[in-house]
Amino acid sequence: MAQALADDGHRPVFALKDVLSPWAAFRDAPWPVLLAPSWVKPQESGKPFSSATFGDVLAVHGYARADVLASLVACWDGILAATRPDLVVCDFAPTLVLAATGRVPVLDVGNGYCQPPYHLPSFPKTFEDREPTYPEADTLRVVRGVMGDRLRPGTDTLPAAFAGAERCVTVFPELDPYRGIRTESCLGPLDPMPPPLPPPATPRFFAYLGAEVASTEPALRLLAQGGFAGEAYVRGSEPAQRDRLRADGLTVHDLPVRLADALARCGVLLHHGGLSAAEAALCAGRPQLLLPIHGEHMLNAAALHKLGVAHVLSGEYPASDVLEAVRQLAFEPKFPRRAADLAAHFARMPLGAALETVRDRCRLLLG
Predict the structure, then answer these.
(1) Predicted confidence (pLDDT) per residue in 203-214, tens digit
(2) Is 121 left (phi over 0), alpha (psi -120 to 50) or beta?
(3) What is the pTM of this model?
(4) CA nearest neighbour of 14 among 73, 72, 70, 91
């Protein structure tokens, strides 16, 4: 998106919550990279946070406290004053939407989870078995107190406070947690997707997991020791950990690999439930084992399980479940068959149109 707009003569400026992890991608780009403000409520001992609605997510990121939200808005105000943009394009940045609305056109590009319906009187539940932790009326009072008359006229609900942005929902509708109640169309993924792939020559798995998750190394070692051939990229792993996995016979990559290439070699994908990996596996026709670590992962995992192409393991589970799950996904015909059918379905969609749509919307808003 940035390159297309730069080719039109515009100057992209980035504000990122994390400026270190993506630095390799930005190091040689001629665009300024700023640090975006963010805050997460410190977790109380023995009280893990779980959200029931997007209102809970807002509250735990500063919206439950007027002093925190005021400081975040002030930081965004400073960034907007310093950069003086003609257009704001954001992803999962509701406070930037608040700060920019009424000052500059805003295009919210996201994966559905971070774009709940704004036409409803309250944010809908994403987990039916949970009750909201933070009352939306309290959060709305905080937003009103901080934003004052900067809020759009008629903002009498919390969802309406963020309705000033235009939106591009870049996800397959099958993975949209608000499918059925959303008014916008889902455009499909921004990322290039692989075509449907033939089965690999030999049964193998590919794992894209995080080293910070306690179950990652035991699960991979168990699979390798159980006779499953596979390869892995473990994000954030140390050399000693990679050596232990290699000693068990696993192929371990030091650097990220192109997911389409890994899926061509492997018949099952193990990951935590990130959307890009899930959509790539859907398009390639590969069953998935999901090991989710937060709420958005859980929603993606539940959708994939409902589609019939995934097993999900969360919380505490016997180590043997990992072996059995991969065995079923790789060798029971119903899983590869269902994955192939869905891959053919997605191949009939106009993949690649999402990026063009977003570019066109940006150009229209820029005038």
Answers:
(1) 999 999 999 998
(2) alpha
(3) 0.90
(4) 91
